Amino acid sequence: MTWFRRQRIALLALAVAIVAVVGAYVWLDVLPSIRPAARVIEAGSSADVAGQTLSLSGAEWDEFEAPEGTRSLSVRFTSSGGPEAGSCTMSVTETTTARTWLSSRDGVDVPYDEDERSCTIDGSSYRILAVFLLPDDADGPFRLDVEGGDDVTARFLVEP
Asked: Which domain holds residue 147?
């Protein structure tokens, strides 16, 4: 029996592993770099994103109970809604350290009011409350990015 016949299972496993590594590299590193970057709009108090106009109403520290070592940052928006309204996601970044956090409203267990939604597809106007859990040492100011499905990101400056 030749060496190749004795090692055929190991060689086949090696070939599968090489294909998997190349596939993961292409999926995680190559494809994201060739996707067009989202256009960033520096917004003052309002911006058009995801087919709707979002207006920043205000930001507040410690409105909701947070775990020890953290504090909550609440950011309120109003949305015009509309027939073309789409969903969006929000993140907040500390300008001095570039640390970024995603909305954690569900983790803090904040209930929704009747006319309040979480930046979703809808035809009528509504309010948005985004709650972020930040470490105690995060003081701000913050950049709040609202990413829409239309490759547009609205960037708001938030100073609670």
From this structure: 39-158
Question: Phi and psi at residue 85, in whole multiples of 5°?
Answer: -60, 135
pTM above 0.90, yes or no: no
> Looking at the 3D structure of the chain, how many domains does it have?
2
Q: How confident is the model at residue 8 (pLDDT cuts 50, 70, 90)?
A: very high
Residues 30 and 44 in one domain: no
Q: Based on the fold, state whether residues 76 and 30 are members of the same structural domain.
A: no
- Burial zone of 111 (CB within 10 Å; 0-12 exposed, 13-18 middle, 19+ buried): exposed
Same domain, 29 and 67: no
Q: For residues 47 and 68, what is the distance between their CA atoms, to the nearest angstrom?
A: 35
* Token pair for 77: 């928006």
Structure tokens at 61: 């520290």
pLDDT tens, residue by residue, 103-125: 887 777 777 776 666 666 656 77
